[in-house]
Design goal:
single chain, alpha+beta, extended
Length: 138
């Protein structure tokens, strides 16, 4: 990894100091240089990923409403992401909160529900805005 006063260079790209004082990640162009070396381990991982994508596609094709699957996955991801921040909540608690919003719920559950709302807001706005800092700030 190379360091200069305003740039940190890696194989994946560089972090460059912007005029505003923030650092921005600028990805390296594709394909990578030097090229990725494929071996048995990489091939096995690619094969497993391909198999799992096929399974997901198969499940999605038999669902009556794939949006329901996506909605549940968003909630599950929100619970997992919030645990990184030491927020203690379960998927069941989030679903109970959404079905009984006026009941008394732990503050941690409210934080996860707010996270779900933010994700849903962002997904709705993607039709109006490109993925950008403006959208993320909203």
């Amino acid at each position: 990894m190379k360091h200069t006063a305003s740039v940190t260079q890696t194989r994946a790209g560089q972090f460059a100091l912007q005029a505003t004082g923030f650092r921005a990640f600028l990805p390296a162009p594709l394909p990578p240089d030097p090229p990725i070396q494929r071996d048995q381990e990489i091939d096995a991982l690619l094969s497993a990923a391909d198999t799992n994508l096929g399974r997901l596609d198969g499940v999605a094709s038999i669902l009556p409403d794939p949006n329901l699957f996506v909605a549940m996955y968003v909630r599950y991801e929100a619970v997992l992401s919030s645990q990184i921040e030491n927020t203690q909540s379960t998927l069941e608690e989030v679903l109970q909160f959404e079905s009984e919003p006026d009941a008394d719920h732990p503050k941690d559950v409210e934080e996860v529900v707010n996270y779900v709302s933010a994700i849903n807001y962002g997904l709705q706005r993607l039709g109006e805005f490109p993925l950008s800092l403006r959208l993320i700030r909203n």
